Amino acid sequence: MKPKHGKSWLLVLPLLGFLGLLWVFLHGLQRDPHALPSSWIGRPAPLFVLPRLDAPAQTFSPAMLRGRVWLLNVWASWCESCHTEHPTLMQLAQHDGLAIVGLNQQDVPDAARAWLAKAGNPYLWSVMDRDARVSIDYGVYGVPETFVIDQAGIVRYRHLGSISPQDARDILLPLIRKLQA
Amino acid sequence: MIRYLPALLLACSGWLAAAPLMADDARLLQRQQALTQGLRCLVCQNETLADSQAQLAVNLRREIHAMLAQGRSEDEVIDFLTQRYGDFILYEPPVKPYTWLLWGGPGLLLAAGTVLWWQLSRRPASASPPLDPAEAARVAALLQQNKTEDHT
User: Domain Thioredoxin, which positions (chain A) (predicted)?
Assistant: First the structure.
């Protein structure tokens, strides 16, 4: 049947609109609502001075790691997912030239020290963020979280949640090697 | 009893001096409450920072309270939070190029719908195409035939 008038394509619009919406909703269903982008990527990592877990009289500041690629790993002895990623962190700590700093969030220092003594210590230093102020500065909303920071102190990547061996192999290590090159 | 009067007065004056402070506190809490009602707890995303019991919400309420108590404005608190946590912490997203489609989308859809409705309703109700000469001749013949039948 030939069209009776020139505007019949307009009738297809609602169907196209409906299919478009359907695509948007289906696409949205597959996204993880907790995977929020960090607002610090590409910006200088916030500076702080915090006491060290092993020697509370001494402090650590990110400025001390200028010129090195390092990880800031937010952890706590009460955090189960941190226990899961611990062996992976131990392996990452073996990587040449990489420093891992632990941001020990809202923990009891004795419990944190006991956990490291038992499970091994992947950190160059851990620092105590007892009131979570520094965690807030970094936009941390869950433990664990890990930031990759380059030689110039710029945040390059933020990993949410536990680091699996696959994450370390496929995401973190290639990025670290690229930054170190 | 009279011996305790000075002490009693002292206690009362202490309470009276504290009263304006309490009013300030109440106003501060009210501002904090109004502000945190519009902020999302990023851990349990359907809860506001005002309602959530997540550790993050507790920490952020503490920070917000401290900032307001220091005399910072609501806008400064929101800047502080969005700088660290991004715009997602706001239940009402700001109008910027990135969100133009979000804010303008409903208006666009309404405009498109209006145009569509106008186009469709402008067409005459009985829109039959004009007859070509052959069809016209056939209609004339049929009408003619009808007329002659009537006369017989």
Answer: 39-181
Token pair in block for residue B84: 């660290």
Domains in chain B: how many in total? 1
Chain A residues closer than 8 Å to B112 by CB: 13
Residue of B nearest to A45 (CA): B84
Chain B: give the shortest CA distance to residue A80, in Å: 15
Q: ipTM of the predicted structure?
A: 0.80
Q: What angle do CA B17, B18, B23 make, to 5 degrees?
A: 115
What backbone torsions phi and psi does residue A50 show, to the nearest 5 degrees? -135, 150
* Among the partner residues A17, A33, A131, nearest to B45 by beta-carbon distance: A33
Q: Are A154 and A70 within 8 A, CB to CB?
A: no
Give the phi and the psi of residue B67 in degrees, each rounded to 5.
Answer: -65, -45
The DSSP letter of residue A44 is B
Which residues of chain B have a pLDDT value below 70? 1-21, 124-127, 150-152
Contact A141 B119 (CB under 8 A): no
Closest-CA residue to A123 (of A164, A89, A154)? A89
